[in-house]
TrEMBL record:
It holds the Pfam family RadC. This is DNA repair protein RadC. Residues 37-161 form the MPN domain. InterPro entries: MPN, RadC_JAB, UPF0758, UPF0758_CS. Keywords: Hydrolase, Metal-binding, Metalloprotease, Protease, Zinc. GO terms for molecular function: metal ion binding; metallopeptidase activity. One of its GO terms (biological process) is proteolysis. It comes from hydrothermal vent metagenome.
Amino acid sequence: MKNYNNIATIYTRRLKTIQLKLGQDYISDPLEDENPKAENPDDAYEILKSLYRQLDDDQEHMIMLVLNVSNEVAGFKVISSGTQTSSEADTKIIFKNALMLGATKIVLAHNHPSGNLQASDADIKFTQKAIAAGKVIDIPVVDHIIITHKAYISMRKERVCEF
């Protein structure tokens, strides 16, 4: 007879994820403010700048900000790191982590090391896919922000996608 006592429950897995999160520099919380709010793209950009300062600036990184019902940043996760021109993110990974971190909504962000602030066709397609997935599980994607060394754009504010 097989012993199934070593199968991890969702609670055990969540605990391991949180322990990993606390133990890794690139996912540690660099924010001074205990409960920063991301009520608009400018707020989110200020928070994201502090996160991106910890990451290599010669490659793209996708970050998810987890928001609670009051638009406070309840957590974040570096979803993917890629090359100088792309970072492939998986919507399953995004929403698995959003659920585990108790998100009521999320903000996605990625950087463009090239300095180009324009959303690519791939950026738009990915964002539309994430928006659709969020609607299904009732965790809306409220924005996707593209960051460069000097500025940012909000795909919501620019009406690149229908959020």
